[in-house]
Amino acid sequence: MSNIVLKIDSIEKSFGGLKAVRDFSLFVNKGEILGMIGPNGSGKTTIFNIISGFLKPDKGKIYLNEIDITKLSPHIRADLGIGRLFQDVRVFKKLTVIENVLLAHKNHNIENLLAPFFKTKKIKNEKKKLTEEALKWLEFVGLKDKKDTIAENLSFGQQKLLALAIILFSNPEIILLDEPLSGLDPQMKNKVLALILKLKELGKTIIVIEHLLDFVFDISDRVILLNNGKKVYDGSPKGLQKNHLLMDIFTGNYAE
Predict the structure, then answer these.
(1) What is the mean pLDDT of residues 171-193?
(2) How many CB atoms lie within 10 A of CB 233?
(3) What share of residues in the chain are helix, strand, coil (percent, to 5)?
(4) What are phi and psi of 153, to 5 degrees?
């Protein structure tokens, strides 16, 4: 069986006359952390939107565990195992922390999970099991003591941790981290870094976009460098740090 969790084959995407992504391919192995870097406008977020289904590519194919997901909706892709942490926090602000996590369970809806009365023993046992799992991930991100707090009363950093717990509860095949450190104070940045390293120890498969290059180089097994929608480097972080490409592209001196 293939060790490749995600495979992208020659995708392209244009907006009007602008080619945002050009003949882009990649693969991500199980348990790998792949860093994706490049200057603003290089195509990083467009690629994340294509992977998660919010944009359809003009050309090319996307495979998750060898299943062609190119035409599937974001909801179905999420059910199949694509979890995404957005740069802007997306939680149900009027619900409690624990309710937010429980709602991520793919086989349940808000009526089932948040109903005040659970009539059968089977439903009670299932809710107990799900609640224990939710609390496990809240403890992992450091929010277990906030389980009954309304989400809007959390700090921005805590809401980001909640969004990560929601993703982890759904047991994704691959996690897309879109600028996970954006908007965080130094203490919270260190906490998120430590959590990502713990996820690495747990064997989670991750693609991360982040402008803080040192952070990407520290956590990534492999790095992809983009410029004008095209991949110009795919290899080790150390190899890229020694390569003139990095300086050329971020200073605008790169010539194709």
Answers:
(1) 93
(2) 18
(3) 40, 25, 35
(4) -90, 0
Structure tokens at 89: 């926090």
User: What 3-state DSSP class applies to 45?
Assistant: helix
26 and 131, same structural domain? no
Structural domain including 167 reads 91-171
Spatial separation of the C-alpha atoms in residues 225 and 18, rounded to whole Å: 20
44-68 average pLDDT score: 95
Instruction: Work out how many domains the chain is built from and give that number.
Output: 2
Q: How confident is the model at residue 110 (pLDDT cuts 50, 70, 90)?
A: very low
- Do 65 and 122 reside in the same domain of the chain? no
Both tokens assigned to 213? 């290059």
Going from the C-alpha of 114 to that of each of 10, 136, 183, the distances in angstroms are 43, 19, 31
Question: Nearest CA to 178 among 67, 69, 51?
Answer: 51
Locate tokens 């309304």: which residue?
A: 150
**If phi over 0 gives left and psi between -120 and 50 gives alpha, with beta otherwise, what is residue 28?**
beta
pLDDT band of residue 148 (cuts 50, 70, 90) is: very high
Q: What is the 3-state secondary structure (H, E, C) of 48-63?
A: HHHHHCCCCCCEEEEE
Q: Which helix (H) or strand (E) holds 75?
A: helix 74-80
Is residue 188 in a domain? yes
Q: Which of 87, 63, 116 is nearest to 183 (CA)?
A: 87
| CATH label of the domain that carries residue 75 | 3.40.50.300
27: which residues sit within 8 A by CB, 6+ positions away? 4, 6, 7, 8
pTM over 0.85: yes
